[in-house]
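step: validate -> pass
step: tokenize input -> pass
step: predict -> running
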Amino acid sequence: MIPSKTLILTLLLLTPASIGATSHRENWMGAYLNHSKIGHSVLVLEPTERFPSEIKGKLAPPEGADEPGGKQLFAESEIGIKAYGKRKPLAWMVAAALKADFSLSRLAFRMESDDSRTDIRARVTTRGLEVEVESSGDTRHQVLPLELGRVYLAEALPARLAALLSEGQDIEGEYPVFEPHQLSVAEWGVRLEGTELLDVGGRSLTTYRVEQDTGGFKPLTWFDSSGWVWKEWAPLGERVGYLSFSESREQALNLDYVHPDVSLGATIEGERDPDLMYSTSVEAGRAISDPGAVRRMVVDLYEFDLERPFPFDEYQRKLPGNPSQTPDRPSAFRLEVIQATPPVETSGARLASDLPAKLRHHLEPEAMVQVGHAEIQARAAEIVRGISDPWDKALAIHAWMGKNIRTEFRITMPSAIEVLHTAKGDCNEQAHLFAALARAAGVPARIVSGLVYQRGAFYYHAWNEVLVGVAPERWIPMDATLRQTIADATHIKFGEGGVSEQSYITGLIGKIRATILEIETDDPDQATHPAIRPDNRG
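step: predict -> pass
step: emit ->
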């Protein structure tokens, strides 16, 4: 069972915001999964001239000129997430200089978990959002385009919305938000649901109830006219939900303190201390004793929407007809997944040099895939020494990773060079390292993500595909984490790309449904069923 970074890092988006009125004001919030406290967060947002100097020593944004009327922001959070039976810590902080309209000017972001640390620095320029990422001693630069020349932080967005509402403006629309943990700028939809009275310490407080839409993930936030957030709610599935409440500093830091409203309102009935990965898995409707032996699967998928077209290809084919499709789930379709076969012949050493322009980016660096790093280059050269065929190179890299990289659940921003240093990681980490080593060895490779069947359910997962031919174009799925040179047919691909391309997963959490209809397997102990393929294969 393999975790997806997006499931956990999604919690980074659920952050309090406050506006200091006349003095230094800290917004402390307790964080909960279902009925269990998992940590806390704190935020300070003040005019630049009043921002407390003692906070600046923790983390400071890059130097630059402050805009008149600008603000300074500092946020910090610590949570512990239970996943696959183990509790893992996650700590992060952000310091930012904001413009008068609460949009971002400059930012420093740091995330730490176990022995992993990632630092991000960013600033808005005429080119866009210039981002610098440091991981395991390696520093990378990229520029994210800004269509309107501005971008917000999730932490400051409620303050911006409160300011607009105080001016009598309509806040409904889309706002560009920088998501540091995914190194991307996303359009967040905002809709005012109305006002609501909250009982706060025995007094009624009028708050705005606002729904945000971050690619299908729709958290609710309650904040007052000053922008102070009092409550947040985000369902992460039928069995688990995230809550946060404004608390005193002492209450927020006390894991034994439980907010009196934690069992009221928009909570869900679920286990008190949920395991986030098990709770967000997708039921499969059928047990598979050995998923690694499955060479063909037919599955119905429904009750979900993707921001992009579903990636049908030679291994994922939509079948005609769908008895699961009803007016209540119009997006349902039947999918046939077929395991790839080894290439009989590849394009040899000429593949990289003859690569069409549209495919060349599969040999280049990207966020957290540090192809040009000296250590990545040296390790790749060592692994494939004496090998010319691209498929044989991919097999050699796969074998090396199986011997040298330990599969271990981690909450990190997946970085190829960090995984090479620590020699451990789960699916996203290993997929990023495999892509970096393959590309450094001249093998076009990409990261893909979606679902995989393991131990009775589908789990969010990431793996790789390598290019073995261009005329026609042919990719072979490989799974370093599950030690499969050719991925089994329980892998369902939903998207392509690394950490910055995986935000779509947040829109699937708690929504997607799956029912396995039939499988063909090499497992002699697995019950077989008649195939429908001869009549309706698409």
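step: describe -> The CA atoms of residues 313 and 337 lie 10 Å apart.
step: cleanup -> pass
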